[in-house]
Design goal:
Length: about 500
């Protein structure tokens, strides 16, 4: 099930209504939310239930075993190995079949069928696999105690708002809140939660899906004669916005639903396209994944310590694996490799004298240099997006070539020639920057908390939320709702 399906509009009021009526009865609420979450995940695909329940059982037992054994490293290896192997089977079997068939020239019908895409990956498996790995490692490190209740652990893993596409939560951010006496019995910041849901729906249904209608035909035929001479750069810029609006919209809805049920979860995006370096970009983009890769891969590999070559190797390995995590295609690894290369260049640049001189600039010179860095970073990110959006290498390279090889008469052709789309994006951008300026870049929780203290302003917040929801439904493109992009990961 998806947040933007009609069925979810029926599912959510029932789940929330029952929770509200029985919210003080701990055992019932725990069971009800777990049942609802498993129903949400397995809606019209019951075959995925054994997979997620198997993950829950193995990870829970591994946590208990870690606290009761002297062979803790072996137990952790077994637990993490289970998560990784099952994830690799479901996610990378098509890539393996395609690579083997290509290298050995095998014509097996079974291999050809798997390699051609007739393979269904369980939705969100990467996210709950990473959640389980983080839990086991934290127990191993002594950062948390192992969870004694299988039902609490299963709800921590499968709670429907964050299950399919994150944010990737750590035990201290959610699991500990599920214990008796700590389980919320009231919504937390309902006005803020409602605004987040409304903003997320608008980002997804209006902005991301409108961009998808405009750009999908170009990327589907990027190497065809039908797109000869068409300028790829505007399409890549629009895709950069699409994936941001799509994914951050999902996160907004997830975090808003969490607040409705009394849980506050971490931010996942912080104006990533205003980053002044690739390192800064990864501090702002998919922040819960970035910190996971940092804490559970980059640092254990020796990042930030030892010889420079070791740091660079850790960076590259982390980003290559982070790229491969996104999907069963070598282009995703190439996308990660590009970001690894950009991060290494960023570090080398930071060690130069010119970097220090430019960093010491003040006034208008400093402002100009800041915007130059933003432009360089954004275009580097967009270059890498070519290999993320178009997963066949020849098509990705054709997309990159069309950055510079195009016909001016076709520079803005097809979807990029629609002024209504650009006006829509400009209007949203002006509104977002105006809100950023009016709030003096304060985080939304602080702003919403201040607004709720003043009845008129609080009413305006609720009205804005309802208005955004209405606009999301009215302005959504008249086509079938697009699935969230990160559902495939």
């Amino acid at each position: 099930m998806s947040f933007v399906q009609v069925e979810f509009a029926l599912f959510l009021p029932i789940v929330f209504g029952v929770w509200w009526l029985f919210r003080t009865r701990y055992a019932f609420v725990l069971g009800w939310l777990l049942f609802a979450s498993l129903y949400f995940y397995s809606f019209k695909q019951l075959w995925v239930l054994p997979i997620i329940l198997g993950y829950c059982l193995v990870d829970w037992l591994t946590g208990l075993w870690l606290e009761r054994t002297q062979r803790r490293r072996l137990v952790l290896t077994l637990g993490v190995g289970f998560n990784v192997l099952v994830l690799c089977f479901w996610k990378y079997t098509p890539l393996f079949a395609q690579t083997v068939a290509g290298l050995l020239g095998w014509k097996s019908p079974q291999l050809q069928e798997i390699a051609s895409g007739n393979w269904i990956v369980p939705m969100g498996i990467s996210f709950y696999a990473f959640t389980g790995i983080a839990y086991m490692v934290d127990v191993y490190r002594g950062m948390i105690a192992a969870e004694t209740s299988l039902w609490r652990y299963a709800l921590f893993t499968s709670f429907f708002p964050h299950l399919v596409a994150g944010p990737i939560l750590r035990p201290r951010e959610f699991l500990t809140d599920l214990r008796p006496g700590l389980m919320p019995t009231q919504p937390l910041a309902p006005a803020e939660g409602t605004f987040l849901i409304a903003r997320g729906l608008f980002k997804k249904l209006v902005l991301a899906d409108s961009i998808a209608v405009a750009i999908d035909p170009f990327f589907a035929h990027v190497s065809d004669p039908s797109t000869a001479g068409v300028w790829a750069l505007p399409y890549i810029y629009l895709y950069a916005l699409q994936i941001y609006f799509d994914f951050s919209g999902y996160t907004d809805i997830a975090r808003g639903l969490g607040l409705w049920f009394g849980f506050r979860w971490p931010e996942n995006f912080n104006w990533p396209y205003l980053a002044t370096s690739i390192q800064d970009f990864w501090r702002r983009w998919h922040m819960t994944l970035s910190r996971f890769l940092r804490d559970y891969l980059y640092i254990p590999l020796g990042g930030n310590r030892g010889a420079p070559w070791r740091v660079y190797a850790a960076l590259m390995i982390t980003m290559l694996l982070g790229g491969l995590w996104h999907g069963a295609s070598w282009s995703f690894m190439l996308w990660g490799g590009l970001h690894g290369l950009f991060l290494i260049i960023n570090r080398l640049w930071g060690e130069t004298a010119l970097h220090d001189r430019l960093a010491a600039l003040t006034g208008r010179s400093a402002l100009a240099w800041r915007w130059i860095r933003i432009a360089i970073t954004f275009n580097a990110v967009c270059l890498a997006w070519c290999f993320f959006r178009v997963t066949h290498l020849a098509d990705s390279l054709a997309c990159v070539r069309k950055w510079v090889d195009f016909d001016w008469d076709k520079a803005f052709a097809g979807g990029t020639a629609d002024p209504a789309l650009w006006l829509l994006l400009a209007g949203y951008g002006i509104a977002a920057f105006a809100a950023r300026g009016l709030t003096r870049e304060a985080p939304l929780p602080a702003v919403a908390a201040r607004m709720e203290l003043r009845p008129f302003v609080s009413g305006a917040l609720w009205g804005c939320s309802l208005g955004l929801t209405a606009l999301a439904l009215l302005l959504a493109p008249g086509v079938q709702v697009q699935p969230f992009i990160y559902f495939q990961f």
